Amino acid sequence: MSKIVLMMNISLDGYIEGPDHDISWHRVDEEMHQHFNGVVRQYDALLSGRRTYELMAGYWPTADADPNITPVGAEFARIWRGIPKVVYSRTLQWADWNATVVRDVVPEAVRALKERSLGDLGLGGARLAGEFLRLGLVDEYRIYVHPVIVGHGTRLFPQADLSASLHLLDSRSFGNGVEFLHYAPNSGRRAA
Predict the structure, then answer these.
(1) CB-count exposure of residue 82 (10 Å: 0-12, 13-18, 19+)
(2) Tens digit of pLDDT for each residue in 3-43?
(3) pTM of the prediction?
(4) Structure confidence at residue 125 (pLDDT)
(5) Residue 50: its H or E element
(6) pLDDT tens digits, one per residue of 58-74
(7) How far apart are CA 65 and CA 42, in angstroms?
């Protein structure tokens, strides 16, 4: 069965975005972007909330037409357009670019999606990730820790009645100072 993998860039102090949804502090360079391309290419689908989907859909559908885009960026645009996307939103009426809108996170429906998927499912978006975590639906974590302190914004792990013991599957240091940490829950994972 496929796994749901939470994949997120965070600051050293645990934020995925600063005030006003600022992500200008992300240090994604060619090396990291090539790594992301390899990871996302392996996913069977991307699961995201409305805000994450709209951020991505606002740029990637036509990014490879930009004469200033790098070859790695153009490759990601093609990957993003082609991969199926599930957008969880109660307000979005429709989504383009190979996307399906789903109103609510229903554990049985998520498990059914995992069972019929051939590859892992990439999960993005803080609010959606929080809901998946609360429901015990996250199988692995791919966290990219950027060497910055943001101070305020949206936390990856909001205060919640959750706890989990994790074990490290893999790690990597990128040349730009970003640290990649790949975790899976220990078998004794529990919600508090």
Answers:
(1) exposed
(2) 999 999 999 999 999 999 899 999 999 999 999 999 999 99
(3) 0.90
(4) 86
(5) helix 50-57
(6) 999 999 999 999 999 99
(7) 24
Distance CA 78, CA 61 (A): 8
Per-residue pLDDT of 99-141, as tens digits, reads 999 999 999 999 999 999 999 999 998 889 989 988 999 999 9
**Calculated CA dihedral for residues 89, 90, 94, 96, nearest 10 degrees:** -10
Residue pointed to by tokens 């803080």: 126
- Would you put residue 97 in left (φ > 0), alpha (ψ -120 to 50) or beta? left
Q: How many degrees, rounded to 5, is the angle at CA 109 between CA 105 and CA 110?
A: 70
> For residue 102, what are the contacts with CB-CB under 8 A and spacing of at least 6?
86, 87, 88, 89, 109
Q: Please report, for residues 45, 152, 155, 189, 192, the alpha-carbon distance to residue 123 in angstroms, rounded to integers and kept in the order given.
A: 9, 23, 16, 19, 22
**CB 165 within 8 Å of CB 189:** yes
The pLDDT of residue 115: 94
- For residue 140, with 0-12 CB atoms within 10 Å meaning exposed, 13-18 middle and 19 or more buried, which class applies? middle
